[in-house]
Amino acid sequence: MSRLDHYIFRQLAVALLAVTIGLAALVWLTQSLRFIELVLDRGLSFSVFIELTGLLLPSFFAVILPITTFVVSLFVYVRLASDRELVVMRAAGLSQWQLARPVLALATLAMATCYILELWVVPTTQAAFRAWQYEIRNELAAILVQEGVFSSVGDDLTVYARYRDPDGTLRGILVHDAREAGAPVTILAEAGRIASGPNGPRVTLENGQRQQVEKVSPPPGSPPGTAPQSRLSVLSFSENSIDLARASRGEADSRYRNAQERNLQELLHPDPAERIPDRDLKRFIAEAHQRLTRPLSAIGYALVALATALTGQFRRHGGSLRLFTGIAVVVVLLAIGLTVGNLAARSPRLIPLVWLNALLPGLVAAWILSGAPGWPQGWFTRRTRTAAP
């Protein structure tokens, strides 16, 4: 790389680093707010919150890095054009592709980084994130039960304790268990203690009542179409135990992993023993092809930025129009990409559209940057015209 290439590349790299970190931090902040409840209401430490939400950062970087590469390339080159620096460089004999070399070098590094993130880092961190969530909901249910608070363990199990003794004994316990569809159970107990069991934490209750509403068949001789009746059954006990480890009784012991947690091999060739539904198999295949194509958009968007900033006539106050044009094109491409990804997840026959969406914008931008060979001359301006001061 020449001295001019180093000069432009340094500006691009510093801007890309600052914009990417800033945007990733903003996205992380907005997404992590939904986990702040774990710290405020559930008693988890702030360090656990930081480590848990930090596992989301690689996925944020993988998504925003191609976009920030485009933004930085477009703004830096439009600024160079506004400051007449591109005019001087062209006067020194640099061609369009020579001016484009710093951006292409930066976009190649961004693409390589995205491939590392998409193929290795993101699946690993997503698996760790969901496993930690599962552990907090199940294995750490004991610390989620706070005195004087209705604590939800999963979506259909609620535990309340009036207060907790220094030795860990819970007093004045209420448990509402709706894990069995159509037969919710409410348990009241004087005392209880949480201990680890073979399937996770269990609460052992003492001196209480178990109340359950059940649906019973109509009595014999009832008219046809008579609806089942509800019956409340009350059982007093001196000791009873409840498993807190599962959010639902039909939940399997092993956690089902979604597409984001699986590596490329598992997406393309899943284990038949898992008996994955056909709908999820289609999503896996679409996710695998999107992982292979998303990093290519770093180069494609960079070429779109170059085609926007380096072609056309020079205007003294034309920078804002170029910025608007380039941003509008990429916004449309992002919208098309989301639509194509959703369609490919429904029908694998549309997967070629995923590759077309990743490759076509860059090819068209490179064609325009080369002067649109084969197109009638004069349609695209190959050289920038300098205006009189």
Written account of the structure:
- With 389 residues, this protein is α+β, with helices and mostly antiparallel strands.
- 53% of the residues lie in helices and 16% in strands.
- The chain has helices at residues 3-32, 37-40, 46-54, 57-82, 85-91, 96-137, 141-144, 264-268, 278-293, 296-310, 319-346, 351-369; strands spanning 151-152, 157-164, 170-177, 185-197, 200-216, 229-243.
- A six-stranded antiparallel beta sheet has the order 1-2-3-4-5-6.
- The two termini are 32 Å apart.
- Residues 247-253 and 379-389 have low confidence and may be disordered.
Jot down its keywords.
disordered C terminus; 12 helices; alpha+beta; six-stranded antiparallel β-sheet; 389 residues
Instruction: Please describe the biggest sheet, giving its number of strands, its sense, and whether it closes into a barrel.
Output: 6 strands, antiparallel
Mean pLDDT: 82
Helix content: 40-55%
- Determine the number of helices (DSSP H or I, runs of at least 4 residues): 12
Shape verdict? elongated
Strand order of the largest sheet: 1-2-3-4-5-6
Rg over CA atoms: 30 Å
Short description:
This protein has 389 residues and is an alpha+beta fold. The chain has twelve helices and six strands.
How do the helices and strands line up, and which of them pair or pack?
Layout: H1 3-32, H2 37-40, H3 46-54, H4 57-82, H5 85-91, H6 96-137, H7 141-144, E1 151-152, E2 157-164, E3 170-177, E4 185-197, E5 200-216, E6 229-243, H8 264-268, H9 278-293, H10 296-310, H11 319-346, H12 351-369
Antiparallel strand pairs: 1-2, 2-3, 3-4, 4-5, 5-6
Helix pairs in contact: 1-4, 1-6, 4-6, 4-10, 4-11, 6-10, 9-11, 9-12, 10-11, 10-12, 11-12
